[in-house]
Amino acid sequence: MFNYEVPPHILTPFLPAGTYLDTWEGHTFVSLVGFLFAQTRVKGISIPWHTNFEEVNLRFYVQGKDDAGKWQRGVVFIKEIVPRCAIALTARWLYHEPYVCMPMQHLIEQTNTELRVSYQWRHQKEWNYMRVVAEPTARALQPNSAEAFITEHYWGYNRYSKEKTMAYQVEHPQWKTYTIQKWAVNCHVAALYGSQFAPYMQQPHSVLMADGSDIIVRKGFML
User: Fold this and answer.
1) Are the C-beta atoms of 116 and 181 separated by less than 8 Å?
2) Which of 4, 101, 172, 221 is deepest in the core (most CB within 10 A)?
3) What stretches of 11-103 adopt beta strand conformation (E)?
4) How far apart are the C-alpha atoms of 23 and 21, rounded to whole Å?
């Protein structure tokens, strides 16, 4: 997760109705996130050749309401990249999320001394990438830390229309994180996400990696 501080006015046009920007110690972030889906099921069904795949997304952090009207911390996705068109179409249909399809690949290598992880996606005939080298052992999150803020959002919100917002709950245990030793990123920010993001996505505020877990994404509902 490569986390960049951006001015709030950059994100307000993407806010779904009824949501508000969430901040950490006065900072507003977007995160470039790469991860691996494994043993994926849709409504309990495994779809052949579509169970293990990469995703890279750009997201930001909000507060919104659940179906009971209680305020929850969640994320809004600006764009989500996956390697198969059927996955993108299914996600758009089920959750109205901004998925696109591009060639992708990943690498995960672990030794006794380090853990190397990279995610790549091909855009405009060039491989974009995010890479980290980390210590091989994960550690528990520190309460109220930047890492906790980035990872501890358990709802998704998106702009279904100008007036309507789709919300869905994401369930997973608290993740552990790894200490980053080295990192590198190459991303066509302006072409992928808009020129307004380019000046602010040069140097990350922080870089982190989490261990991941089983995840349940609940059925979406309208607010």
Assistant:
1) no
2) 4
3) 20-21, 29-37, 53-65, 71-82, 99-101
4) 6
- Residue 43: its pLDDT value, please? 67
114-171 pLDDT per residue, tens: 999 999 999 999 999 999 999 999 999 999 999 999 999 999 999 988 899 999 999 9
* Mean pLDDT of all residues belonging to the chain: 93
Say which CATH architecture domain 2-222 belongs to: Beta Barrel (2.40)
> d(Cα 98, Cα 80) in Å, to the nearest integer?
6
| Residue 210 and residue 177 in contact, taking contact as beta carbons nearer than 8 Å | yes
Residue 23: name the closest of 39, 46, 5 by CA: 5
Residue (of 74, 60, 63) closest to 28 by Cα position: 60
User: In terms of Cα–Cα distance, which of 181, 162, 73 is closest to 117?
Assistant: 181
pTM for the model stands at 0.94
Nearest CA to 154 out of 80, 63, 51, 92 is that of: 63
| Structural domain spans, the chain | 2-222
Distance (Å, rounded) from C-alpha 74 to C-alpha 72? 6
The token pair at 219 is 């059925």
